[in-house]
Amino acid sequence: MTMRIAGMASDELEAYLRAGEIVRSLKSSVATRIRAGARLIDLASFVEEETLRMDARPAFPCNISVNAIASHYTPSPTCPRMLEKGDVVKVDLGAIVGGYIADSAFTAEVETAVHQDLIEAANEALSRAVEAVHPGVTTSEIGRTISAVASAHGFRVLKDLYGHNMCRNCLHGGLTIPNYDDGSARKIREGDVLAIEPFLTAGRGEISRNPGGNIFQVIRKDAFYATGAGEKEMLQRLNRDYTGFPFTVRWLGADTAALQGLIRSAAVKEYPMLVEKDGAPVSQAEHTLIVTREGCKIIT
To answer: Which of 37, 60, 160, 179 would staple 246 via disulfide (CB 3.0–4.6 Å)?
Structure first.
């Protein structure tokens, strides 16, 4: 029987399901490449190139966040970093099909099991949060479920990091899914597309925002904010190629001087790298799901 979602056309649903299928395949493939000695740049490039090969677009640069880095890090073109035994590695990736997005993440430990409890707790928190999703549930109830699982295992959630809803050509649609009870009365509706992503740690769970994450986004599209022909050409290219989605320097080729000018003029923002302040490893688990009349369907 064909699944039906109120307010969602069949071709829209088909695109979401295809994006989810691609993301599932990519997660499985990249997981087999996580080993000591693997270069971060090779892992990220593999994910992004495979996304294109499967007739989709990356929704954002593949995030490969190691140990206390929680999110918003992708390797630069010259990044020498290789995975080491004992690293806690979070891989966060997304695919766009016809403007419709699937977003998912997993955590792996490189050739040890010291942090297995932390990783399993994030997976359990995600599973329990998904079980709690149905039309009418508040976002704070979902967050309360996540934090309760974390606490039961002796961990804390990172309160500064949220899940989010998505819509066509929009990675963050304005609805946030907290990892704790933030008191919000906003309710989930049938047809919502949600990315739920618990982040857990044994540290205090506080975040520092550091430069160097190598992820950027156009926030002012008008050529008024560009100075000189090079910046105007770069801004035009960014608007055309990435349509408001995040991008990274390694996608742009060798000449990126114009990008720095666009950053200075605040036409382009750089995402800060998010790091757990205590230096404690962070685990992440994430699925994209579509809210149905009875509950939800995981597509990743």
So the answer is: 60
d(C-alpha 94, C-alpha 269), whole Å = 20
Work out whether the CA dihedral 64, 66, 72, 75 comes out positive or negative. negative
14 assigned to active site: no
Question: Collapsing DSSP states into helix, strand and coil, what is residue 231?
Answer: helix
3-state secondary structure of 97: strand
131 is catalytic: no
Asked if residue 264 lies in contact with residue 296, where contact means CB atoms within 8 angstroms, the answer is: no
| Residue 285 to residues 115, 194, 225, 230, Cα–Cα distance (Å) | 14, 14, 38, 40
Alpha carbon distance 197, 94 (integer Å): 13
What pTM did the predictor assign? 0.95
* 197 annotated active-site: yes
103 a catalytic residue: yes
Q: Which of 87, 190, 286, 287 is catalytic?
A: 286
